[in-house]
Amino acid sequence: MICPNCGTRLSTGITLCHFCGYESPLGSDNEQSQKKIELFLTKFIALFTLFALAISISFFLYTTMELKSLDKSLVAIISICGGFLLTFFYLIISPWLIQKLFDDMFHGK
Length: 109
Ligand SMILES: [Zn+2]
What we know:
The longest helix is centred in the middle third of the chain and has 37 residues, at 29-65. The chain is elongated. Helices cover 67% and strands 0% of the residues. By secondary structure, it is mainly alpha-helical. It contains two helices and no strands. The chain has a domain at 41-107. The structure holds zinc ion (ZN). Zinc ion (ZN) is lined by residues 3, 5-6, 8, 17, 19-20, 22.
């Protein structure tokens, strides 16, 4: 947004002007609806990424299991279930995983 007091361009989500100190009252309606759209898009992208991951794992499982002489539709069902289960498992452990991986960066040394 742009500061209504001095015209300085402010980053989205910033309600306090760093130049003149003007504080906008909780952002405009337009800004709030924009935030909602951004939140929705973020969620959509996250869900889409997870869905793509699930499909990839399913496809991987399918191609690996297909080598065995099992019924194709059975292999497909097992693959899709496995893909979505593994993605769900990944979703559960990812906060822990990220914390473990990047803990050093956030706290130094
Ligand atoms: Zn200002």
